[in-house]
Amino acid sequence: MVLQEDQPKRIWVHDINKKRNEFGEFHTIFHDLTEDDKKFFIYFCMSYAKFCELLLAIEPRIEKKNTNFREAITPRERLAVTLRVGFDLANHDGDETWRIANGLGFLDGVAWTLAWNVFLGQGDTFRVIALTYRMGETTVRRIVYETCEVIWEVLSPIVMPPPTKEIWGHISSRIWDKWQYPNALGAMDGKNVVFEKPGGSGSTFFNYKKEFSIVLLALVDADYKFIVVDVGAHGRTSDGAVFFRSRLGKMLTEGTLDIPVPKSLPNEPEIVLPHVIVADEAFPLQENIMRPYPGPQVVNNEPNKIYNYRHSRFRRVSENAFGILSKKFRIYQ
Predict the structure, then answer these.
(1) Whole-prediction pTM value?
(2) Which of 11, 26, 159, 270 falls 20 to 30 Å from 222 in CA-CA distance?
């Protein structure tokens, strides 16, 4: 008879986590935070009123049932965990980051960006949250992934709907009113989001700044709001190439972006021009993409100088939008 060695007993719930309802961070601090708007905002990067509004929208989708073995984590605590977790790309494991970006269907493209941009502002890691909230690390990961998916499904039609001719028209009018650039659909730019090199990726993500990154491409309106975003392209890829491979670029090329028909200029009714995306020199000049005049064409040419001034004045809105984003959400710094 072969004697089998005793297998280590697997812990179903760690003793520390059994005291979650007594000593977990949510149960010890959340109620007190709700009575102080300033501290609540510092902790969650949103007001308590907005927290409740968001919870009301997603609660039915993230609620779990109690079982005979354990009490389910409430939707309120699930949302709190999600809001406290941010993926610090500068210090986070590259393989994990890339898996999140590409391996999960619900966190692709705009969804992934929305989850990071709008909600995950604090930047604590899964491990830290697991310890302070007295949950398993796997549980924290699952909560964050599931909650982000629901947030995206519920809010994306509201906060970032696919632009229609009517929406494009409003965007263009606002750009003219604020920045005096006619027939513009938005300012476009790309930003390298730095993270640790994923294993086995070679130089795929190695950019011109000698960093490993993925590219966030964005189209921004007159008020620094993101209209369309595309995220996940390799850091070594140029902004122009990222654009043409993006859904936005493909739709613009195929004529399916639903942009308005050419329109006369505000002060020159006899001149009819197409609507354009305003970009920098990294993007090619096309019917619906405008870039500044190159240096030689500006020398001793006052009209071109004036155009470049107007062009740069509005185009910098996209750079400033990234600056605002980076200041509020540290994963982009």
Answers:
(1) 0.74
(2) 270
